[in-house]
UniProtKB/TrEMBL annotation:
It holds the Pfam family Catalase_C. Residues 1-28 are annotated as: Disordered. It is an enzyme of class 1 (oxidoreductase). This is Catalase. Decomposes hydrogen peroxide into water and oxygen; serves to protect cells from the toxic effects of hydrogen peroxide. Keywords: Heme, Hydrogen peroxide, Iron, Metal-binding, Oxidoreductase, Peroxidase. Belongs to the catalase family. HPII subfamily. Its cofactor is heme. It comes from Paeniglutamicibacter antarcticus. It catalyses: 2 H2O2 = O2 + 2 H2O. It comes from the Bacteria. PANTHER family: CATALASE, CATALASE-B. InterPro entries: Catalase, Catalase_AS, Catalase_clade2, Catalase_clade2_helical, Catalase_core, Catalase_haem_BS, Catalase_immune_responsive, Catalase_large_C.
Amino acid sequence: MTTPVPEPTQARKPNTNADPGHPQGTALTTSQGAVLRDTDHSLKAGPRGPVLLQDHHLREKITHFDHERIPERVVHARGAGAHGTFTSYGTGSRICSAAFLAEGVKTPLFVRFSTVAGSRGSADAVRDTRGFATKFYTEEGVFDLVGNNMPVFFIQDAIKFPDVVHSVKPHPDLEIPQAQSAHDTFWDFVSLHTQAQAHAMWVMSDRGIPRSFRMMEGFGVHTFRMIAADGQSSLVKFHWKPKLGVHSLVWEEAMLANGADPDFHRRDLSDAIKAGAFPEWELGLQVFEDNEGQSFDGIDLLDPTKFVPEELVPIQMVGKMVLDRNPSNYFAETEQVAFHPGHLVPGIDVTNDPLLQGRLFSYIDTQITRLGGPNFSQLPINLPHAPVNDMLRDGMHQTYIHEGIAPYHPNSLDGGCPYQAGEGDNSKMPFIDFPELVAESVKGRSNPVSFDDHFSQARMFYRSLQAHERRHVQQAYSFELGKCASEVIRARQLQALANIDVQLCAAVARELGLPVPGADTEVVDREPCPSVSQALGSWPVDGRILGIVASHHTEASVIETLVAAANHAGFQPLLLSSVGGSLADGSPVDRTLLTARSIEFDALLIADFLVPVAGAKVDSDTKAGAVRPPGAIGFDPRLVLLLQETYRQSKAIVAVDQPESFFQDLGLEGTGPGLVHASVPDAVPGAVALLATHRVWERFDESGPVPKDSARA
Ligand code: HEM
């Protein structure tokens, strides 16, 4: 007998008090629906008490509150989610029978982005890998693509996952540092277990501090298998390509953001969706022949510490994802969503990657604890949109009222239902476990020899970066190792760097004041793959934040023109002035000099300079460092601070109809790259041109030639 399938509604059913504006009704009730008169006072024997045990409302309210928290995820605890739709181009159906990859099919989905190491309340802009997990509610069941923003992982075998996670989590004695890899235990593990070096290199690069979730690539990491309608198998790697390009914060911004706006990435995502600047990615596949060795050009496709450069195997796009709706309840959706790499649909299967194989066990297991029992797939956010007719029964928090008496197969008492594919009237496409040949072998705890290469891809990645990106990598290693107390650990990691790149090792050793070791391992040189650099190309400015600095005396027509042009160009403009209120055109001030910080803006237009106002007094200013440089007499010191930070962060500043000496007066280099004078009509186009490459990297001559000793021979 078929199990009734609950509606995939997101909200609790309206009660009888409901009106359209208040789906839960307007009257306050108990959890049993009895209307309440007073929730402000406990039931007492007289106004001075004591409180009576019979107060069922008090007990229900406090008891429920006492149990509001559930365990946070053991990893990826900090995250943000959004709803959207995937539209298939149909190109994937050549190699995959999954219905959601057929041409024009639209599939609703939910995405959760996350950091790995930090607790649920930790800051967003920490240096870390980001999770990128997508739940496709397809007509054939849920497909979860549970990936990261980096294509390689720390370990090759799931049995090492507890080890790497214990090493990056805070030290167990004092539980510090929070959400950081810059500490002894992490580098102790990574320097000993050198298969982690390639992923560590990605984390030390700018990829470890993304500008926005909207500007991250996503990777399925493992090699998966796709099966075509005719049974033909291909090996594939999944890629998400962001429309806005891949961009990062600079380290100063990341550190400021963690203090000034710990919700930096979460806010950026929801603000963009609210503003209608819907984040977009294309889903792409690298497709490999399913050959016996399951390798490509010497890269073992079952080794999750390796990736295949796009230069060798181009990515074929199969569809587009648009995120267009914020969650309406963080807990119900973003916190309770449960991803699992084993949520697969017909046409997609796993490979023997030993990391993936362990993951297939781990996710359900952890979710039974996290979500309080085995029925979490019935939660609205996890509920498949395809009909569910399993024979799973009972358990904590069972919400289905199953019918029938024979939840077993085969049966005759329920008429043989549920039917397997091909039985009764069930002609649906079943999930296929691909009949892969398993080579004759000997049981044991070992890896293929190809897994022993721990350095060649770290070197390839580093040497594919632009000069300024390499300097950021050098600084990141120097910072992280500089935070390690143990000199033994620092020296051991320097040894790993010596095997990766001599010049990188020397630069870090110089910062640490330690000798430069020689390489102790022979490492294969691979062709660089410039596609891993974030610096090449130019990108749309959709949804980027343009700060427009105006005073309460700035002409209404100037503000109107700049805001209209910014909106037209696709920016999210934010008006910034000395204090709050409205500007001459009636627009509300979005940020004041007290609430604004450089991190929030991708570029600045200065429509008016701001003279010091009452709150600008340096002595009482709440912004450390808001000092006025010599010469900048007429400016509010907080404006000076804002512009100096923006300048240091290599972002564009456009002075609109300001005197030639404007930048010098602020203590900046008068005519450096990215410091532009423009008329009102030219100001926004000027910002678009500068922001298309994300930053003005040439400002500090960082795009200079690649240091010789690090270049490929
Ligand atoms: C390529 C390697 C891996 C990737 C890309 C990856 C990715 C992710 C992502 C994106 C999440 C967050 C899901 C969410 O937003 O709810 C997550 C959570 C998790 N991962 Fe992984 N992971 C990897 C390896 C592993 C391994 C090897 C294990 C264990 C053997 C593991 C265990 C977990 C657990 C227990 C959670 C928490 C799940 C929950 O509480 O809902 N992961 N992982």
